[in-house]
Task: structure prediction
Amino acid sequence: MKTADLHMRDAFFNELYKLAKKDKDILLLSDDFGAPYLDIYREKLSGQYLNVGIAEQSMVSIAAGLSLSGKNVYLYAIVPFVTLRCYEQMKIDISSMNLPVTAVGVGAGYAYGAAGPTHHAVEDIAAMRVLPNFTIYNPSDANIAAALAHISYKNKGPTYIRFDRGKLPLFYEKNNDFSTGLNIIQKGSDYWIITTGIMLSRAIDAAHKLKKKNIDVGIIDVYRLKPLNKKQLLKTIKNSKGLITLEEHNINGGLGSIIAETLFDENILIPLKRIGIEDKYQFNYGNREFLQNICGLDTDSVTKKIVEWVR
Result:
């Protein structure tokens, strides 16, 4: 499997820069948080870039004002700082006004593992999806991230995009149609693993191990969490023996909750196993792999949980 040449964030900003050169109404705001590709904005589009400093609440309110004056505004910060630190402003200034502002957060899940709970992004999906009007994306590779620059540019309401860190595997071609919000990665005869973001790699690894145990699972990658493409999802899983959701997010309010709510609302009785982060803060310090092992999100632990549930 090929590894991306760019981080998700950089793939996104590279495409956004192309759009911003043609559209002077595209503005990018940062909370004193840098990225290599932001240097291009500072040098060549200085009138379309603003570093507001460590003032996330003000950044959101500034974005709202600029949006009301006809600008297409993008906000950029680490995930917890562009969501929870300025949550009231997101609610009142952006969500309630239904403004076309895009919040871009980097560092999903335990991407900033060693930085501790202040930098862990494991409850943002739950918080952001209850804000009306927001569209939420959690891409699994850099090609989706690049496409999201164009998709968010056309969106007429608020958008939240959570990116991962690092140069990660590519699962999609650049010319893929990403308007559906989800994609079947592989088909299976027995069960479906429904996953999102970086956990797609984990789902693929677990599926290989499960195959050796005569458990055949398909994999669905959900990269648009809100609105969920219910029609395509339900059509895909309708004859399944059971579903497993896999996410690097608090077990409450994330992908597992989205799928459970969907099944309940549609009166579909398919067994569901949710695998995610236990409902507590992680005060162990170490890299992402270390924290995933502690939380039971490594390949062996995920495989074991599925085998025990199936049997």
